Amino acid sequence: MGLTGIQIMQKLPKTNCGDCGFPTCLAFAMKVAAGQAEIDKCPHVDPAVKEEIAEASAPPIRTVVLGSGEHQLKLGGETVLFRHEKRFENPVPLGLRLATDMEEAEIARRLESFRRLRWERVGVDLHAEVLALEEVNGNKDGFLSLVRRVREECPEAVLVLISENPGTLSEACDLCGEHRPLLYAATLDNFKEMGQVAKEKKAALAVRGDNLAETARISEELLKMGLKDLVLDTGARSVRELYEDQVIVRRAAIKKRFKPFGFPTITFPYRCARGYLAEAILAAVLIPKYAGMIIMSDFRADVLFPLLVERMNIFTDPQKPLVVEEGIYPINGPDENSPVLITCNFALTYFIVSGEVEGSRVPSWLLIKDTEGLSVLTAWAAGKFGADTIAEFVKKCGIAEKVKHRKLVIPGYLAGIKGELEDELPDWEIIIGPREASGLPSFLKEWKAA
User: Fold this and answer.
1) Where are the domains of the chain?
2) Tally of CB atoms within 10 A around 181
3) Cis omega before residue 243 (within 30°)?
4) pLDDT single digits (tens) 352-399
5) Residues annotated as binding site?
6) Would the pLDDT of 123 be above 90?
7) pLDDT tier for residue 33 given thresholds of 50, 70 and 90
8) Please, what CATH class does the domain formed by 327-445 belong to?
9) What's the pLDDT at 422?
């Protein structure tokens, strides 16, 4: 169990100097205990005490950092079994396999897919992050050449380097420079050599056992060697075994604080699935239960996009809805005669509505009212998107100075407040828009300011 705020405060200088950014040592200790501040922020704590507190306050599943600079990637850091208890911390990275036995054209196609398959949804950039490079049949030169190529062509990619030869992985690490890769993998036969390479290169190391017991044994041995940044592969070779292993590892780490399993996992669905569709379905299962990283055999847009959307939904905070800032949003270059529409600040609503308005090619003003992330009807029911609040926002937002007309389009679901809103805004004509955003293009093309 982590230390309490009082226990942490007892290890602090108790000077209340404020150098940590908090007014008192107690306030700082409470924030550290809650995971909202790092013990490193106190410049006066003894290093040994810092390490003790950091270790005791660390999440049950260690956070492993890969990559470098703006292309860093965090695995693990999880503290709960179920999303509604708190939230899931670090989104599961999705990766694409490249191997030395692939034809040049196939490697080029996969690298192009990695770069090209990107989407934006509700303001979030959706894309894969990882390339797993595998040495096949001891082709060391081909492997090192592949590492060089990927670093040049896809410098943003976080790398998983797969080889049975510790010397080869050592040379591949040198090619990565400061870009920290994941070395795959330490087995019962080679964990000492692999562990030494990981220590020398300061790289993260994957553990691969033939089963859960063997994985735990290798993990324990590496911990004794002083290695802390580990990623686990339990060696599952069936769908059921892979799924059950993820649950067992997560439960053992969080409920039992079993240190050998206190690390994120890496999974390869194609090793268990029969066919690409089955692989995609298994990947969709592993995102919420409880893979730390997923490596796919190939990327297809019709499979990757749904996986990325699922990941985005699972790894948002269920207690904090996605919102956009309140204000006036010009779309398609509006002028003083352009229509004025209003909706809530729930991010999904905003991006759907703005997308339809943009697609209509009709210059428009879109007013976004702060509804604390609630959708139109929910906000109305909660009293955050009624006639009085809308009228107050319209008066203060400044839209009256931007248009000559006085016509306001409200969502069709709010037709019932038209009369009240006209009483609140006597100078404005209230127009009921379509109930669904898909009806906006045709509605706007028929709209007239006069």
Assistant:
1) 5-57, 63-314, 327-445
2) 24
3) no
4) 999 999 999 999 999 999 999 999 999 999 999 999 999 999 999 999
5) 17, 20, 25, 42, 343, 349, 373-376, 437
6) no
7) confident
8) alpha beta
9) 94
Give the residue numbers of the binding site for [4Fe-4S] cluster: 17, 20, 25, 42
For the entire predicted model, the pTM comes to 0.79
Answer whether CATH 3.40.50.300 is correct for domain 63-314: no
Per residue in 392-421, pLDDT tens?
A: 999 999 999 999 999 999 999 999 999 999
DSSP H helices in 180-267? 191-201, 212-224, 239-255
Give the torsion sign (CA, 225, 202, 231, 65): positive
The C-alpha atoms of residue 368 and residue 270 are separated, in whole angstroms, by 45
CA dihedral 371, 376, 382, 388 (to 10 degrees): 70
Q: Describe the chain by its helix, strand, coil percentages, rounded to 5.
A: 45, 20, 35
Question: Residues at the annotated binding site for 5-methoxybenzimidazolylcob(I)amide?
Answer: 343, 349, 373-376, 437
Query: Which CATH number is 5-57 given?
Result: 1.10.15.40
Q: What residues have CB less than 8 Å from 209, skipping those under 6 apart?
A: 187, 188, 215, 216, 217, 218, 233, 234, 235
